[in-house]
Amino acid sequence: QLELVESGGGLVQPGGSLRLSCAVSGFTFDVWTIGWFRQAPGKEREGVSCISSTMSDSKTYYADSVKGRFTISKDNVKNTVYLQMNSLKPEDTAVYSCAAGRIVSLADIPYDYWGQGTQVTVSS
Asked: Which residue, 40, 38, 62, 58, is CA-closest to 49?
């Protein structure tokens, strides 16, 4: 069974950092693109970052809103993708979800499998 499980969310002050984890199981991890998405209340889901499969040399992509602050990485031994989030802002507050897809994209349509999400709240 295909499964993605996020962890690492929480409450952090502006300027702080969090690291989200996305543990994947049930499929060949290294052939999938893994993306991170977020959705704030009343807003559309937004693509944050994605990392292409190992077969595509694991290229990384970021939304302009997080470029320079967030870093995506993967551990092929642990079948886990991480999202390191630094210099967090109140506008980063959202439910963050990871997803697996067959092509590289920051749009959510190409992604087939989704985790349940983890809440990130940036507030003083």
From this structure: 62
